[in-house]
Amino acid sequence: MPLAATPPASLDRQEIARRIPHQGSMCLLERVSAWDSERISCEATSHLDPDNPLRAHGRLGAACGIEYAAQAMAVHGALVAEAQAAAPDEAPKSGYLVSVRGVTLHVERLDDLGEALAVRAERRSGNAASVLYDFTVHAGDALLLSGRAVVMLDAAMASMAPINPKETP
């Protein structure tokens, strides 16, 4: 398959928002610092914003880091699709987060850290219907959370995804 024009190596928030469905304050990532066909590294400080839409009861729990990772996966999928598109304006398939597993939370909150988040996702396997990612969220050298996620790339497939948390891909 011919490669379209290669997307930039780094992206700002506006370029991220152009590629994912999350808009306004729900676009949590500020920057893609690096990416290739297998992985992506992003940065965010929206966890420090008192108006972060994921905050509840005056705090932003560590589990909200999964949404940061999911947005990194969405940007990664869009960038890879863009790089592989036969036509420059060919839309990538929509992705649906259908499973997260093996999540380990090393902190209780994200909003009290005082430094930027480094969000990383790495594609472990996949095909035309689904992709398996490992993800991590760090603040400096501290690992805040990690896990694995399955993204379905077809709406019909997403509705048939298993919901038993004991099943593993």
Overview of this protein structure:
The protein has three helices and seven strands. The protein has helices spanning 13-19, 65-84, 155-159; strands at 11-12, 31-35, 39-44, 96-105, 117-126, 130-139, 142-152. The model is unreliable at 156-169 (pLDDT under 50). The two termini are 28 Å apart. A hairpin with a 3-residue loop joins strand 2 (31-35) and strand 3. It is of the alpha+beta class. The protein has one domain (11-159): Roll (Thiol Ester Dehydrase, Chain A), CATH 3.10.129. Helix content is 19%, strand content 32%. A seven-stranded antiparallel β-sheet has the order 1-2-3-5-6-7-4.
Based on CA atoms alone, the radius of gyration comes out at: 16 Å
Helix content: 10-25%
Strand content: 25-35%
* First-to-last CA distance: 28 Å
The overall strand count is 7
For this structure, what is the CATH class? Alpha Beta
Pick out the low-confidence regions: 156-169
Continuous helix count: 3
Mean pLDDT: 86
- The number of distinct structural domains comes to 1
Helix/strand order, N-terminal first: EHEEHEEEEH
Assign an overall shape.
Answer: globular
Side-by-side strand order of the widest sheet: 1-2-3-5-6-7-4
The CATH topology assignment is Thiol Ester Dehydrase, Chain A
Largest sheet: 7 strands, antiparallel
What is the name of the CATH superfamily? Hotdog Thioesterase
Structural class from helices and strands? alpha+beta
CATH architecture name: Roll
